[in-house]
Structures
1.
Amino acid sequence: MSLHRADPLDHPDVRNASGIAFVAGYAASVGLMAIALMVTLRHEMSYVRFVIAVAILGGLALLAQAVLMFRLDLSGGQRWKTISLLLVVPLFVLSIGLTGWMFHTLYPRTMLDFMQVQGSGM
Amino acid sequence: MSRTAHRLIGPEEPLWAPHHPEADPVSLHTLGFWLYMMSDALIFAALFAAYAVLDHPYNAAGGPQISDVVHPVAAFIQTVIIFTSVFAYSLAMVGLKAGNRAFVIGGLVAAVLLGAAFLGLELRDFAVLIAEGATPDRSGLLSVFFVLVATHGIHMVFGILWMLVMIVQVAMKGFTTAVVTRLLNLRIFWMFQASIWVCVFVFVYLNGAYR
């Protein structure tokens, strides 16, 4: 056991709490999701443009949360959390994207009546 | 326990000073928990992948389409509630920084109440769908919809239970190293729920409503 004793409230993970950053993160998250809702309700874009628009808005909301709420940065205390997140995000996107792509190319080749319902799908 | 009881004793540097030769137990625990949450994110990735596969009219099996079961405005209200709950927890962390026990407990109570409101709305939505015959066993599409949304909801339940435990621990033990470490881990867990909900809201509710 360590002979060192220190106030846990002086730990960098505690000290990085910032009321201003939390307010900014909250406002950015709510605002970006409100814009995404408006884009959805207006229904004025093609489906592909809509997907790109809401993906960008969602990505910005997640970025705002990572930086302003989680307080991730490249400081000594947060560096490995930031790096691990940056390494997980591609896995997250690829596992969803590749699985979806694989099955949506598989459906037309394996399901005889697929073409009858394809028109109302993606 | 009072703050002064934790003040530096003995060696000249605090344990969490940069380049301290000994391991910092708080950082070790929070990094370990952070890595656990990254693996939890991949569980959601698997569920989102299943949703991407089954989100097709073919998999509705003649039953309701996704556009029939999602309501983006109601989901946006849930979104604001969960963001506000996370914001309340964040304010509790500002209170922790100041060593204010009442502020921390107040923030945790607000986060619990808002989290419970979020879950209440989710359960009401599920009840309405089930009453209309849109049950999880109706089609593959509905199965994955219920599993994905409910998995997030179960995380919320555990987060609320954890917060209730922490309210008691903060009140009884104060800001010991163990309690502060648990509060920091719970901060990661609770904020993570809001980030996953952004994906659910965009990928399921908004995308589903645009068809």
2.
Amino acid sequence: MFADPGFWIVQLLNGLQFSMLLFLLSVGLTVIFGLMNFVNLAHGSLYALGAFVGWSWVNVSGSYWLAFFLAPVCVAAVGALLYVTLIDRMRAAGPLNQVLVTFGLIFVFLDVFRYFWGDFTLGVDKPALLAGGFEIAGQIYPAYRLFIIALGLLVLAGLWVVLERTNVGATIRAGVDNSEMASCLGINVEKVFFIVFCVGCALAGLAGVVAAPLFSVSPGMGIELLIPTLIVVVIGGLGSLKGAIAGSLLVGMLQTFGQVLAPQLASMLVYLLLAATLIMRPQGLFPARA
Amino acid sequence: MLELRDVHSGYGETRVLHGISIDVHAGEVVAVLGRNGVGKTTTLKTVMGLLPCLEGEILLDGRRLDGARPYDIARSGVAYVPETRDIFPSLTVLENLELSLPLGEKRGGGWTLARVFEIFPRLEQRRANGGMQLSGGEQQMLAIARALLLNPSLLVLDEPTEGLAPIVIGEIHSKLAELKRDGLTILLVEQNFGFATSLADRCYVLGKSVVQWSGTSDAILADKDMQHRWLGV
């Protein structure tokens, strides 16, 4: 098995696909943290919300692609509502209160999912366009997974261009560096925070609706992915796009290859990586504020 | 132009300013002097809305500034150069300057990138460098240039000479003198007595959280007793 190049290629693609999913989730979380110093533990719940809302849109309209575009919008709207009603007020409350409140939100969302969608595991069919597969190195590889990889790379490239090459991006980076000074230059940092928060929520929703056909949709799906996402953010360094990319790839690959090469160790490996990072480079690989 | 009337301010529970009154007229350079820790930086931060004005009033051209948020204060024409310069490290020199353009262009005035580069040619040479690759003097120039691009009616400077070599201090002095000749209104906080008095028209001396003395720069230079008592020079 190990001598077969097809095996390695397929595992590499699996790792890349999982990494991209982690990236979609962690990039929002890390930029929100960098910009607002706000720890949103309910980020995983927004991912689950994306999956549930996606499921509903598929059922109502019969079109996966409609769900694909509408679920992120719906999740961003819920994010905006959360921001206005709760998160904006918690900004000055300190990390402990933020963690407690957003931890509480996880349970609120859990019950909201159960109330509206039931405590079941729901399935979403892959869109017909991507139902097939491609032959790669003698193996059939599902087209849908390749789509996730492509989507992740597209979002990554888009975010990079916006953050590094545009005035909007420079404004966001300035806000991450020093929000007080940015506001002294006439920049409405609060508005920037709000927009970035909503975009982060939309990306979590996008991850959810994209993950729905791959994994089953269940109320607990967000909690499952929250831990690896937080690990990505810590390993990559808080607040940085580069960190989110590097962290997602490290955790995604380690988890994927760990499961096939050392299944007994797999569940521990990511935590060992986390511990090693915290000991040797506690600020993470690419911290936004060096 | 700027008027502080009996301003009280501080950090959290700690009051640092106990009723400060300062006037800055249009076209004037006013220096706030005093020993370390008397509240000079606190005064400027309170003007910028970075610290709360707990009592008293701050007026800009007769309109209340106290209680406004920093970006509203910036929009009404106050540009701030903090003591720590606060160059954005993840932005290039050019990006640091460009941040000021939206507001600067909306306010209108004579300051453009071209004019800023004319005054500070070093910044043009280093335009693609990261904000943290600059020397202390270059950072100070960048912070001043960034503030000028806002086309401010009032420039607020916190210790522009701090940590700089004498030759660089001389350079900053001549640039600020040029701005003064141009008619820009400046509120300056300084530890460097010679620098401040040679630039300012009038000075305020803070001590024990209140204004102890105010007058022209000539008067302060003549009053050795006051200098000894409140400035230790």
